[in-house]
């Protein structure tokens, strides 16, 4: 309130604003550049003349992309994986974090130890692969993409810390009124935890959306590939085609820079669009978690 | 109390994890060991069985395509972003029709093909046929017995065996042999040696100023010098591929190796029948001096060795800011396409120079093997194993198979006019530059599945006539000319190291070659002085183990030479 009335602009404000504007430009520039590339005609792209607005404006690239069924199939897959994955991840995270937030849970320390352990050590690629594909038989199913990374230790810890901040008295009152544990969790705790739920959803959604490695190793059929794999192949794969060992020309052919940038723009769009809506919870959720932690 | 508890937990955790790890390893190892055991038995038995089978061949069931019973083979497929995999390619239908074989594919994006291949082969989950594997990449799978020694089974591969004989590839084939005298990868075979990389020049600029077309590296220097006088604020030569292609093909005519072909620093001196460390030779110094002179006098862009290809091609060569660049027979087509956009049609003329003459004359690499196919041990369990090998032989090595994977089906995608293949109307092949301007035409590669790197190895592969049919007039002339005027450098014989020796050699050569590469660039760009710093460079190479590497290589080579015979 005090600050709102202050009319004089201090030196600090000026410097701060200038720096912040610079930061904004730096963060925005890649997006602008990509968007500009995707809408420019190739001539200017080849000559490297694009900066942050399109030259020789055309939507031709997007038209080509629209016709590419591979892209849309993988796009659909990504949406399915993200939605289902986020719901599952969120549910599992809450169900794990909530009991852990209770001080009277027996063996809490041991459990926490086990969970923390996974933050620093992992079984390695080959055992993990064998587990998922041979023992669990999840290869080539949606589950291989979602389940192995469903719970992020970090997210569990943040959520747990948030739950610890909810006053015990509330829950006790509910218990006295005859509510069981699940009732308390779903009717009392969760409605109070919207910020953390929103934050975690965003974390998980972005994580799954961008994840290419899991799908890459567990999926063998093209109709299951998410859009991240599609993108990786047209960017890194095209690069590789040109650099292939010893410069052997068997992978001739190139993807146009405009196509690459158009597909990047289209696949980054949904996540960017979700962000503003979740943002208000976002800061709150993270801060609460960290402060109390 | 608390601390103790934590300690206890930590201990329990570590012990249990270690336990899990060990049991995990044990579990993993046992089946593998028993697997190799079976496999070992299998491989020792089979070859003895097979030849007798081969002897009987004329008698009973010989496998002919199409197979009587339909068969299904599994295969790893490298999905190229320029021609994404499609289920409805007629390629698959034709394979099925002609062989009664259905390929069950595991699709892997090209971007990370090696990683997934390695993962699948090491976990034993790989399909039976694994193509797109370069000789050298297979060695890690050999000790565990994950892939089969294909050399034991080439009697099942009539086309492959015949081509080895007819095209005199025995020497080439030796280069992929392992310590046991066997080889584990079926390489693509070339009938003739091909130099695919060379320099491209802006012929129109050369002609405009009456600069003679260079025949040797010295000519090139003079030409660049004139260009620099005419265009003082440009670098007439700005290279791509970070100079690796350039050093690769230039080093041949200087009698050394370099760039992509730098290898582990070991060079085979045929006259002495021994190996030496080439980066410290006078020949290598001479090559560095030559390029250093180009950079020093402002004839060559010092960024040549660091810049991205896009910048070298799109922003410099294609916009007329440089006049000389490395290229290959495909890239030159795509550069022309780009220059039509940037400079406009008719405003430029780009040609590929034949390999230039150096101190050792005009030399091209005589290596005639391409990337290849490995067969995993899973295939041995397939009751149709023999058919599988025959199928591989048919699809990748027979003339019929190669025609199918290159041109498709007669009457559907192409027709033959005399000796020439001609695409039917309404079909284009963008990658070959055929009918490119027909917007509505279907693409031979994208829409029909032909010209696929997985099946054709490389465009230089296979029967000479088929290979030439797949080339532009220009590329064909280039290759023929190069073969006429150049001498071939035959491949060096392999040094048959076992696992431990290979590891030691790698340990030495990795840091050694990193250093060599770094110094090579410094010498060329002038950050290090060739005259002053050369001795220090030689000393440092020796300190990093170049002598040991040479000695080791020669010893092993002399000891194991006989295995190859």
Automatic annotation (TrEMBL), chain A:
Residues 75-278 form the ABC transmembrane type-1 domain. It comes from the Bacteria. Belongs to the binding-protein-dependent transport system permease family. It is found in: Cell membrane. It is a multi-pass membrane protein. Pfam families: BPD_transp_1 (PF00528). The keyword DNA damage does not apply. GO terms for cellular component: plasma membrane. The chain crosses the membrane at residues 12-32, 79-98, 110-130, 142-163, 184-209, 257-278. This is Carbohydrate ABC transporter membrane protein 2, CUT1 family. PANTHER family: ABC TRANSPORTER PERMEASE PROTEIN MG189-RELATED-RELATED, POLYGALACTURONAN_RHAMNOGALACTURONAN TRANSPORT SYSTEM PERMEASE PROTEIN YTCP. Keywords: Cell membrane, Membrane, Transmembrane, Transmembrane helix, Transport. GO terms for biological process: transmembrane transport.
